[in-house]
Amino acid sequence: MTTERQLHFNLFLHDTGHHEASWRLPDADPRAHLDLDYHRRLARIAEDAKFDSLFLADGPALAGDVGRRPQGRIEPTVLLTALAATTSRIGLIATASTSYNEPFNLARRLSSVDWISDGRAGWNIVTTAGEAAARNFGLEDQPLHRARYERAAEFLEVATKLWDSWEDDAIVADKAAGVHTLAAKVHAIGHRGEHFRVAGPLNAPRSPQGYPLLVQAGSSEDGKEFAARWAEAIFTAQPTIEEAQDFYADIKRRVLAQGRDPEHVKVLPGLVPVIGETEAEARELDAELDRLITPEYARRQLAKTLKVDPETLAFDAPLPDDLPGEDAVEGSKSRYSLIVDLARRENLTVRELIGRLGGGRGHRTFTGTPVQIADTIQQWFENGAADGFNIMPAVLPSGLEVFVERVVPILQERGLFRTEYEGRTLREHYGLPRPVNQYTLASVQ
Amino acid sequence: MTTERQLHFNLFLHDTGHHEASWRLPDADPRAHLDLDYHRRLARIAEDAKFDSLFLADGPALAGDVGRRPQGRIEPTVLLTALAATTSRIGLIATASTSYNEPFNLARRLSSVDWISDGRAGWNIVTTAGEAAARNFGLEDQPLHRARYERAAEFLEVATKLWDSWEDDAIVADKAAGVHTLAAKVHAIGHRGEHFRVAGPLNAPRSPQGYPLLVQAGSSEDGKEFAARWAEAIFTAQPTIEEAQDFYADIKRRVLAQGRDPEHVKVLPGLVPVIGETEAEARELDAELDRLITPEYARRQLAKTLKVDPETLAFDAPLPDDLPGEDAVEGSKSRYSLIVDLARRENLTVRELIGRLGGGRGHRTFTGTPVQIADTIQQWFENGAADGFNIMPAVLPSGLEVFVERVVPILQERGLFRTEYEGRTLREHYGLPRPVNQYTLASVQ
């Protein structure tokens, strides 16, 4: 049992890899995203390496061109439940939208995943940008950014009440008396708010973790405030250590201002490892992937994010000066700013920017040798930039394999990463407490 | 390969058994409903016996007293996905509500279960009676019976369009050209109806079965019309062979009137087997279970279904004459009539009625020896009353074990039930065709 501060690793599963052209590599299976055995293999590798968790992104709509890369994934709670059956320790974090779900249904489903996995469920809370999703749910356009976050906040209130609506000792199973569960320990929640009216209780006993680990990934002002109030782990895209340090300090400050313990919120920047035996080898892999990007698809996607006509983006010129600005964006504000800042800071042409985004979509790409990557991880971890990383291999499974075979052992030797799981639940892996039940608390007072 | 008409068996999973007092038996585990290993064991027994499918009921609210019996189950798509991982052939039928889900979310999730299980998903379509459920979704009371079925019909239109929105050959995976999927074979659905506006396409390729097997269980006039239009298998409660024959003929007639093939809709009455080596032994097991019913709970539940005050139901008197009548019921109309008809026909006291409902909730209880039960099954099957049965053991797992060890072999010897799976998908087990894709059809014409 170590008491030193330890790194946390989450594996961000993403088809054949996070690089958008990874499916075009000779060894890639372009139907991997629909293949349970493929995902089992990845989960096994990550669990053998003692990663904290697996994670799946999601949105209820197609994301742009279907020609560009594999689309149409298996819904995360379904895929992770299937993976729960063939793993025993690794956490399982599913993305689900507060804008396009009902709190009762989603709270109940996540509780079920926590039961099925014996305490390994996590929820990446998203508000879902984009009009494509909105139009699958009876709306003409997406709700405003602020409105989505207001709904999300009330959604979390409802969900946590529902998860607490059964006290942990409600089931008594008294066969002789014929009393299965004590009605006095199962509470209606009677929620009446601006967005939701939910009577409760949940139709499920409180799950092993109390409720799933709450994860959040938006880095806008609204997103950071929401994270400070609710998140226990934060996925974030930080291109440089300086920006990561600013973000880290800002989040921990906000968490403290909410009256929460900053150690109970783990900040995990995205990390796209591109690993070679030599730096040159790593760069060649990078270049090979970038050559496989179809520039027209990528430009169309970039234009959509920037809210401009694709024709206004010349491949060999920098971004135009007259972009609409973050305030005009009602989709993902933080993603917009990340991309524009990156292009301006490094004075990239559109073609160069596409290459950078194709690899890590704005996340930090670490191209180098195993030792160089381990050094960078340690540097970020020990200098207030990260509590761990969201590992996003450009190519799967090979990028994961080389990371766990070559980088993880270095970090273990340095005493920075576990060699065995010490806890049983996902929340225990991240060093987070099991939430106190608000109704038990209320009845004690 | 047999061409004879064959029985179909579905196992209705239900905690420690369908008898409401089954959890109070000495061997029962009162936490079985939360135990994945327990469900795996039941699934294994049913798959070894070559059952067509497993089935889970569901509703988004607690159903009455929590003291009475185990409540708060694992959500069916989650539990069945977990069971998909440890089975390979048996079908997996999840109940989900058209009143309290969005079509995009549910269509997508069921498609995912079909992918994960390699073509074994089924959907038991319910409109969800009761104000408890309504109050978890912002409503004060349940929508009217007719309105629920209108929404359900439009829900199915949307869902089937979404399932067809990717043609089966949309993915081309052309690495050289950099084209993963053909945009021309992925169709927006542009649905605009009274209840839903859904743009589509689904964010998932068409699943192995095209779409999940469609199952329905309501037996009201609205329910039967809905079933005739959409269902491929029907679960129904039929207390006598005569009533089952009438129902069977009525359904097949309605299916024909819809322009569908009556053989493509399988009628499966519920069957609660209580099996003994002798008739006396079977009756003793029945009686032991009924002694364990807590009459106050059961009377409260009965009063709720009948829309009367519990105090008006004297235990040792028949039902009062002045009941409100099916027309006044906006919940489950067919269940109301089933109970009242049963009590009147057999002139039961409230106490006797509670005993009958505690065992099979109005479904046909077969109490007897293995040969007697096999004879009855054969009689119903060969005389236009059933295409198979929804097996609802009063006690689990023991009631299932004795059914598969003692009754199934008799039916196999008589050539009425398969000894090996012949198909791969759930739809193949039931002898049903894979649905034609409406968009492929449209583009060919």
From TrEMBL, chains A, B:
Residues 31-316 form the Luciferase-like domain. It comes from the Bacteria. Gene3D superfamilies: Luciferase-like domain. Coiled coil: none annotated. The keyword Flavoprotein applies. GO terms for molecular function: monooxygenase activity; oxidoreductase activity, acting on paired donors, with incorporation or reduction of molecular oxygen. FMN binds at residues 58, 95, 145, 149, 219-220. InterPro entries: Diverse_substr_monoxygenases, Luciferase-like_dom, Luciferase-like_sf, NTA_MOA. Keywords: Flavoprotein, FMN, Monooxygenase, Oxidoreductase. NCBIfam families: FMN_nitrolo. Belongs to the NtaA/SnaA/DszA monooxygenase family. This is LLM class flavin-dependent oxidoreductase.
